[in-house]
């Protein structure tokens, strides 16, 4: 039995170069060609060949399935590398056999136009989905490429990055006569309208090469990650010992408590975590090590949060001021760790409706009010008391167990 012909997906080069050498032969034999209007105009479709200008995808998928069933060769034209957040996935989900002739992706072209390497960058998309995770990736990681969409582009992401030290590169109309590449700031990007389609690069100062194409006011100050895992679990692990952080008078969330708190917060790329009453910042920093965007809120301007974040090579936004007032203008979080403050702080956090709230309490008289407050706010609450005893040396080579102070950990989860 003869296998049905594959749908040939041809990438239209975002750098403006000619298509794959096999593209012309595929188009010459096609009985159906599907693509955006600009792609259909850019490549030689034979006169009389049926074409579909892409709008809603479902009708095009039906026509492609019918062509495959009839044994008629079909071609789909798509931007850049159609396997990168592109139409290849949708065709495969629809059960269509696929042959891909890729071109330079818009992401590769954007980095090339900016004169930047991108071996440590993360690539995310805001196209056709909630842009929040893409925004949080830009908040968390030093180099991120975002495939944008109308209403989820440089204007909106720039507005969401206000307060984070980032430089943006906006690449519009790549590969066309209207191509434009703009270096800007989040604040400036938020005030402009940008042409679609465009690719957004979000770069922390340490992601920029010294002496590179960026303005001289944007020098590189640190290396990119080199482990090929820009959003993977940290090589050095998490639940690190207290000695891994600068702290004062042992004011730090102990490792046993921190391990549970971080597990309850469920940090990952695409989420935003608040660390309220951050102190040394150990909880927020370990969330950042696991890929989350983090805002550390601390009353004391001399607290070592920023120094600890730099020590561990993560990007944590530090907001200094008294809670709950300082929380008012912060972007909505996905999860919050409350390591300090009274019930007024917890009430302000609950009012923002994060999916998860984790609270640590040493004073027993504060446990019941915190539980009732979270339950009244609609959270399901559970809790544990952690009381660890650590090995300590005794004279003569013996060891004993030295108790640490017991701490209650409460977790509120929104249904």
Automatic annotation (TrEMBL):
Stretches assigned to the Tetrapyrrole methylase domain:
23-187
Q: In which pathway does it act?
A: Cofactor biosynthesis; adenosylcobalamin biosynthesis
Q: Name one GO biological process term.
A: cobalamin biosynthetic process
**Keyword terms:** Cobalamin biosynthesis, Methyltransferase, S-adenosyl-L-methionine, Transferase
Kindly list the GO molecular function terms attached to this UniProt entry: protein methyltransferase activity
SUPFAM superfamilies with a match to the protein in the record: S-adenosyl-L-methionine-dependent methyltransferases, Tetrapyrrole methylase
Question: Is S-adenosyl-L-methionine among the key words of this record?
Answer: yes
Name by which UniProt lists this protein: Precorrin-6Y C5,15-methyltransferase (Decarboxylating)
> Taxonomic classification, please?
Bacteria, Bacillati, Actinomycetota, Actinomycetes, Micromonosporales
């Amino acid at each position: 039995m003869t296998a049905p012909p594959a749908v040939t997906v041809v990438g239209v080069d975002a750098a403006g170069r000619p298509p794959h050498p096999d593209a012309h032969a595929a188009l010459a034999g096609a009985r159906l060609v599907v693509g955006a209007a600009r792609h259909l105009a850019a490549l030689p479709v034979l006169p009389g060949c049926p074409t579909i200008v892409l709008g809603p995808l479902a009708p095009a998928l039906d026509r492609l399935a019918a062509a495959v069933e009839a044994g008629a060769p079909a071609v789909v034209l798509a931007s850049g590398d159609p396997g990168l957040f592109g139409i290849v996935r949708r065709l495969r989900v629809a059960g269509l056999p696929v042959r891909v002739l890729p071109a330079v992706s818009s992401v590769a072209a954007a980095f090339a136009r900016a004169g930047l390497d991108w071996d440590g960058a993360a690539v995310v998309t805001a196209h056709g989905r909630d842009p929040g995770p893409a925004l949080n990736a830009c908040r968390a990681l030093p180099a991120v490429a975002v495939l944008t969409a109308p209403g989820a582009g440089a204007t909106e992401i720039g507005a969401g990055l206000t307060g984070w030290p980032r430089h943006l590169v906006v690449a519009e109309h790549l590969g066309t006569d209207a191509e434009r590449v703009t270096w800007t700031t989040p604040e400036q990007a938020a005030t402009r309208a940008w042409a679609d389609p465009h690719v957004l690069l979000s770069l922390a100062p340490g992601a920029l090469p010294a002496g590179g194409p960026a303005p001289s006011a944007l020098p590189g100050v640190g290396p990119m990650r080199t482990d090929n895992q820009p959003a993977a679990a940290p090589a050095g692990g998490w639940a690190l010992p207290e000695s891994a952080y600068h702290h004062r008078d042992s004011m730090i969330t102990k490792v046993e408590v921190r391990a549970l708190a971080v597990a309850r917060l469920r940090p990952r790329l695409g989420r935003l975590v608040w660390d309220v009453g951050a102190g040394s910042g150990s909880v927020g920093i370990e969330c950042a090590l696991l890929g989350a965007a983090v805002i550390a809120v601390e009353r004391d301007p001399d607290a070592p949060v920023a120094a600890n974040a730099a020590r561990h090579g993560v990007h944590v936004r530090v907001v200094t001021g008294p809670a709950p007032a300082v929380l008012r203008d912060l972007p909505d979080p996905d999860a919050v760790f409350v390591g300090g403050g009274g019930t007024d702080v917890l009430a302000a956090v609950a009012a923002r409706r994060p999916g998860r709230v984790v609270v640590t309490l040493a004073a027993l008289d504060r446990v019941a009010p915190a539980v009732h407050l979270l339950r009244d706010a609609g959270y399901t609450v559970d809790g544990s008391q952690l009381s660890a005893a650590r090995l300590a040396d005794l004279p003569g080579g013996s060891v004993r167990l030295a108790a640490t102070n017991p701490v209650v950990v409460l977790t509120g989860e929104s249904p």
